[in-house]
Amino acid sequence: MLESHQYLRQFSIKPSVQRSAVMHFLLNNRIHPTIDEIFMALSPTMPTLSKTTVYNTMDLFVEKGAVQVLAIDEKNARYDVDISAHGHFFCKGCAKVYDIFDLKPEMFQLPVNEKFKIHAVESS
Q: Which fold has domain 1-124?
């Protein structure tokens, strides 16, 4: 796996301590985290990290194409470091997001369910 600073450079993002830490977290925790989850995970070891820095960092990552923002959770934006074309399965019971790589059109014909949601990501 690539080091976080190498990954950032692939997207023309100048590595900083905060950017590298956020990217390291994303690359090593494929959980589709929210801003709060990223902040809570990193703040114990980075006391100078602010939630605003995490927001700005994620905005930059999205703008440069290093991560994608998911609008699958109605309460929070979630982020995915896997920028390949794939779908997502959101469990409303446990609030976890799972990747779906073999997305078939008939999956979108499933009845609306209170317990899950499927989201397709367009290929770029």
A: Arc Repressor Mutant, subunit A (1.10.10)
Q: Which amino acid is at 66?
A: A
Instruction: Check if the beta carbon of residue 65 is closer than 8 Å to that of residue 83.
Output: yes
The count of C-alpha atoms lying within 13 angstroms of the C-alpha of 97, restricted to the half-sphere facing its C-beta, is: 26
Q: Give the residue ranges of the chain where pLDDT is below 70.
A: 1-2, 103-124
State the DSSP H helix or E strand holding residue 80, giving kind and residue range, or none if neither: strand 78-80
Neighbours of 83 (CB within 10 A): 16
This prediction's pTM: 0.81
Closest CA to 25 of 98, 99, 79: 79
User: Residue 100 in contact with residue 118, Cβ under 8 Å?
Assistant: yes
Torsion sign over Cα 33, 35, 40, 41? positive
- The closest alpha carbon to 67, from 38, 91, 92, belongs to 38
End-to-end CA distance of the chain: 23
Give pLDDT, residue 108.
54
The H or E element spanning position 100 is strand 97-100
